[in-house]
């Protein structure tokens, strides 16, 4: 199964609802517009965006004399696509680059670090993984397993060590190895815990300071929030809080193969003006894909 197929299968629920709406294919009625807005809200897009998109499409339909559901389906995909923030610099392609993965517990940070490390290693990059999750012993072991699978060294310290100083050590090691890509996993934390968010802000600052002093020149540091797409609108709250505390650079959405409805991708990217760097579509090492707003919107509306 291709990656687009995996994504399309994951977004089945949203597509089914939209298919139902477009089913009759004839000229649309007033009911269509009301149901469109409801369907978009149900797809996790959030009420405000759903209303905007629906109004926009209605204006376009009037201007361009689009009357049938089929004509509107393609136009809807376009309208959704336009709302995504595009990637200016891909931190996983840029060299050198350091990325800190943050997010709530179980979002898929460690798995995503493993997947990205593996792809980058296969592409011939010198990759170093760091574990700044010093809270859970199992998390350090889990990252180690991913590092072995990916064939990439993992820098780790004992449970209970200061996560900021671990990041310093990770950069020391990356500097020594002249690494192209440094991936740092952090401990899962609730966006509502101000103490934990402050700790994370320190981790980011220390990492940035050390990265500036790399022997080969300053290494850019990016902070990427990993969100489980199945958390729906709560994902938007997570993004708002993490962004406020840390200043995020972009998003990775995981578990789009599951019961996710997908609209959260649009809500976060559009509301926060953040690009989606990758999407997770399964648990295996190869189940990660680059985010393509065009394909995503077509998978979402079945255009
Ligand atoms: N189906 C599916 N499962 C995923 C995906 N990404 C991660 N998972 C699963 O989600 C669960 C949690 O993933 P982890 O990578 O451990 O999450 P984490 O954010 O590191 O968790 P903490 O260390 O507790 O903060 C694991 O069972 C993963 O296999 C995905 O894209 N699709």
Automatic annotation (TrEMBL):
The gene is ftsY. It comes from the Bacteria. The keyword Repeat does not apply. Residues 95-258 form the AAA+ ATPase domain. GTP binds at residues 103-110, 185-189, 254-257. InterPro entries: AAA+_ATPase, P-loop_NTPase, Signal_recog_particl_SRP54_hlx, SR_rcpt_FtsY, SRP/SRP_N, SRP54_GTPase_dom, SRP54_N_sf. Residues 7-84 form the Signal recognition particle SRP54 helical bundle domain. Keywords: Cell membrane, Cytoplasm, GTP-binding, Hydrolase, Membrane, Nucleotide-binding, Receptor. This is Signal recognition particle receptor FtsY. It is a peripheral membrane protein. It is found in: Cell membrane; Cytoplasm. Residues 96-302 form the SRP54-type proteins GTP-binding domain. One of its GO terms (molecular function) is GTPase activity.
């Amino acid at each position: 199964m291709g990656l687009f197929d995996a994504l399309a299968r994951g977004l089945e629920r949203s597509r089914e609802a939209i298919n139902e709406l477009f089913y009759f294919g004839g000229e649309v009625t007033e009911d269509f517009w009301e149901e469109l807005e409801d369907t978009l809200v149900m797809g996790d897009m959030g009420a405000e965006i759903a209303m905007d998109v629906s109004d926009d499409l209605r204006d376009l339909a009037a201007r361009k004399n689009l009357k049938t559901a089929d004509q509107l389906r393609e136009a809807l995909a376009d309208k959704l696509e336009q709302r995504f923030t595009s990637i200016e610099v891909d931190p996983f392609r840029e060299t050198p680059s350091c990325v800190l993965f943050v997010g709530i517990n179980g979002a898929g940070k460690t798995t995503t670090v493993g997947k990205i490390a593996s792809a980058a290693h296969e592409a011939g990059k010198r990759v170093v993984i760091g574990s700044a999750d010093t809270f859970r012993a199992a998390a350090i072991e889990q990252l180690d397993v991913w590092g072995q699978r990916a064939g990439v060294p993992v820098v780790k310290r004992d449970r209970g060590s200061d996560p900021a100083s671990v990041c310093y050590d990770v950069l020391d090691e990356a500097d020594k190895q002249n690494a192209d890509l440094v991936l740092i996993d952090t401990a899962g934390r609730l966006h509502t815990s101000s103490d934990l968010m402050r700790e994370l802000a320190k981790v980011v600052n220390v990492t940035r300071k050390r990265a500036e002093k790399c022997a080969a020149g300053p290494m850019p540091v990016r902070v990427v929030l990993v969100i489980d797409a199945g958390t729906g609108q709560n994902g938007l709250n997570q993004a708002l809080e993490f962004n406020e505390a840390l200043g995020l650079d972009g998003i990775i959405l995981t578990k789009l193969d599951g019961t996710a409805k997908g609209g959260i991708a649009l809500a976060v990217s559009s509301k926060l003006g953040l690009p989606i760097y990758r999407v997770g579509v399964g648990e295996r090492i190869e189940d990660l894909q680059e985010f393509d707003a065009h394909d995503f919107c077509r998978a979402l509306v079945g255009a």
